[in-house]
User: Fold this.
Amino acid sequence: MSFSGKVAVVTGGSSGMGAATAEALSSAGAQVNLIDIDKKGAEEIAKKTGSEIYIGDVSNSEFCDLTINSIAEKQGQIDILINAAGIILRADALETNDDNWKRIMEVNVDGVFYMCRSALSHMVTKKSGVIVNFGSIWGDVASSGATAYCVTKGAVHQLTKALALEHAENGIRVNAVAPGEVNTPMIKAGRDKPPTRDELQDLANATIPIKRLAEPEEIAEVVLFLASEKSSYMTGSIVPVDAGYTAR
Ligand SMILES: NC(=O)c1ccc[n+]([C@@H]2O[C@H](COP(=O)([O-])OP(=O)(O)OC[C@H]3O[C@@H](n4cnc5c(N)ncnc54)[C@H](O)[C@@H]3O)[C@@H](O)[C@H]2O)c1
Assistant:
């Protein structure tokens, strides 16, 4: 797949699957723009990808508009938007306080909405563009002990479908990947202590039919397919990349 001449924006591009997607897009010829709250991580990935970096919080709509407008002005267009920025909260409903609930909604839902809205305002003018959002298996099936996270990912799936319908006749496609358990910093985040390699393997044995975690690059392959013309007949799709987790 060649992305030569394409202008791509990747949120959450400093780490994990966003970073893997940024690297894959850059290797395939895209001009990649990284947006992340983590400056150090962004600088490391930018060294490998030659990306422009924009440091800020996707839950701030003004930051999203200013950043997207600036990229569009400098580079002429926004061809591809990948929304990978996100956080996890490993807490059941009774353990979730108002601040935690609001914060995960702001980042995982508001942030995706603001970025989509900003990018779409440019894509509609060109009558072309592709958006790929990061949902989750937990936006489809639920999990106990991560109530708010499940709700945010369900919202991302519905946002993806609603935007796909709204822009189907504008030459703009909107899809989402729904990864299973992936070997990124997030898999260790939000726990009392980070799981050991053996504990992660136990988790995989117990819950994943293929019995291993995904590597971020394996998810990035599917993201690139959805961002490419090879998926030209797909919009409004939520694509599980979960080694059979949701096939049960
Ligand atoms: N790791 C998994 O098992 C898994 C599974 C399914 C879905 N997901 C989703 O995939 C996406 C990528 O996850 P990952 O595992 O690569 O996580 P990660 O923690 O490795 O990367 C997330 C990135 O988002 C950035 N970020 C967080 N809050 C931000 C904010 N407010 N503004 C800007 N940037 C912000 C972080 O700095 C980080 O670089 C997330 O949306 C996550 O919910 C992860």
Notes: The radius of gyration is 17 Å.
